Amino acid sequence: MLQQPQPDDYVLATGETHSVRELCEEAFSTMGLDYREYVLKEEVCFRPPESAQLVGNPAKARRVFGWKPQVSFRDLVRMMVEKDLEALRPK
Q1: Which residues have CB under 8 Å from 74's CB, separation 6+?
Q2: Is 32 left (phi over 0), alpha (psi -120 to 50) or beta?
Q3: Nearest Cα to 12, choosing from 46, 61, 49, 53?
């Protein structure tokens, strides 16, 4: 992207949608935990459904660069949790 002759906008995304529930399930399961034992759902905090799905469209990056995602949602969540746990370990 930085080597292009003209600046432009590109979206690097999987093109998939995932819920907060899926994120919690994956993050907690990385540590062998059930998120339902730690996360409270407050109905008052739920926002109304979006009229359109919010999802990143990587078509332009794919077309211009041949880019495609190499890390799955599951692997990305696990990587983030493991990095956070690593930061908490005494040095």
Answers
A1: 26
A2: left
A3: 61
pTM beyond 0.85: the answer is no
Beta-carbon contacts of residue 56 (< 8 Å; ≥ 6 apart): 11, 12, 13, 14, 15
Express each pLDDT in 3-56 by its tens digit.
Answer: 889 999 999 999 999 999 999 999 999 999 999 999 998 888 888 887 788 899
76 in Cβ contact with 30 (< 8 Å)? no
Residue-level pLDDT at 52 = 80
Domain locations in the chain as residue ranges? 20-88
The secondary structure of the chain, three-state, reads CCCCCCCCCCCCCCCCCCCHHHHHHHHHHHCCCCHHHCCCCCHHHCCCCCCCCCCCCCHHHHHHHCCCCCCCHHHHHHHHHHHHHHHHCCC
